[in-house]
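Researcher: Here's the sequence for the chain we discussed earlier.
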Amino acid sequence: MSGQVSRVAAHVRAELAKAIVGQREAIDQLLLAVLCGGHVVLEGVPGLAKTLAVKALGRVCQVGFNRVQCTPDLMPADVTGTNMFNMAQGSFTLHRGPIFTDLLLVDEINRTPPRTQAALLEAMEERQVTIDGARHALPPFFTVFATQNPIEFEGTYPLPEAQLDRFLMKIRIGYPGNDEEVEILMRHQRGFDAHDLDRLGLTTLEPALLKEARAEIGGIRVDEALARYIGAVARRTRNWPSLSLGASPRAAVSLMAAAKGLAAMEGRDFLIPDDVKAAAPPVLRHRLILKPEADLDGVTSDQVIADLIAAVEVPR
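Model: Thanks. This is the structure I predict for it:
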């Protein structure tokens, strides 16, 4: 065990703390998505530094970052790019869209129409885009961070459950605590500018470390008993009384992948049940559909996950 993942995680935490106050769990999960090769739904009201966190993560990891602001008239070509005729050369030239990057922040994805959502989700699944019949590969660290505002629904196109299942995790960004909010204010008083990351003096990682970290996560040992435990958690969601839709087999695979990433962050080369328990909320919360009566009673998906995790027997 080389311990590269835990070293990368420690470095990212320390550097992002220069830009982001608090949000330790969210930062770990953002990095986890990149290292596991998954995509993320970021849920939180405006003004909680979601864009800043992803942009700073890209800067520290020395990978590309682009942002797309979704609107109801956004077309697939606005994201993927298009072939344009070059008069001087007498031929078509590909003008690449913002999707050709490593970290892509898709702001308010539920404001863009289904056709554009579908083009984006196809790229997420295939790691390539097709433009005028030609396939173009996306970078190996291509990761989508799609934000959603939980309080605005007018003029939106919510992602269908089948599409949400393609996201590895749903990360919820909450309000800062009292001391954290005071620290945010004092940083701005001292001249902090979220648009000028150069002034923060962020120390970058060597790109090779990310590849080594990914390989390390792939080598985490998972005993059959732990695989059975993960399967039992997924199956329990399918017959839970307050759920009308449980987790798919893809969700179980995602749960194992995220749990392996958490184990590597802790410096271990083997999986334990606590890794699965910690990974369950972000991996499962967007994949479960509550029954209408449970929703009316104020039951949340996180509460259901906590209850069913407690109900599944832990392997010894």
